[in-house]
Amino acid sequence: MKTNCYLKLFLIFMFSISNIYAQSMQSKVYEARNKVMPALVHIQPVIKNYRTGELEKQAVVGSGFIFHKDGYVVTNYHVAGKAERIICTLHNKEQVTAKYIGGDPMTDLAVIKLDLSEYSEDIPVAKFGNSDS
């Protein structure tokens, strides 16, 4: 009987600790999300495709984030690597064009540059972190 009581107390204690840890992790995730959200970009590339022997323009969607104040965006190679034209929607719903700068199909990473010539606001930028912080 005494062992049963200790077991129940132990389980209650462990459950409360895990619940506190989960809430702490959730708040850290929300904090990180809120920091990066303004720098997120919705990407709409138009890709040429000759699958059937004829030119098909295929519209796809993707996302990326602005990592430099000059409008450089990290995205996936499969999104922007073969794009003929790229239209990006920013956090404020404004659309700007972008051009493909470079990428690597093996790591599926690409960089595009937003055309900010007619964009009047300061561009929000996400900061890279590291696993130690």
What does this structure look like?
The protein is α+β, with helices and mostly antiparallel strands and 133 residues long. The chain has a domain at 37-114: Trypsin-like serine proteases (Thrombin, subunit H), CATH 2.40.10.10. The protein has two helices and seven strands. It has helices spanning 2-36, 77-80, and strands at 40-49, 56-59, 62-68, 72-75, 83-89, 95-104, 109-114. Strands 1-3-4-7-6-5 form a six-stranded antiparallel β-barrel. A hairpin with a 3-residue loop joins β3 (62-68) and β4. The radius of gyration is 23 Å and the shape is elongated. 14% of the residues are buried. The model has no long low-confidence stretch (mean pLDDT 83).
Summarize the structure.
With 133 residues, the protein is of the alpha+beta class.
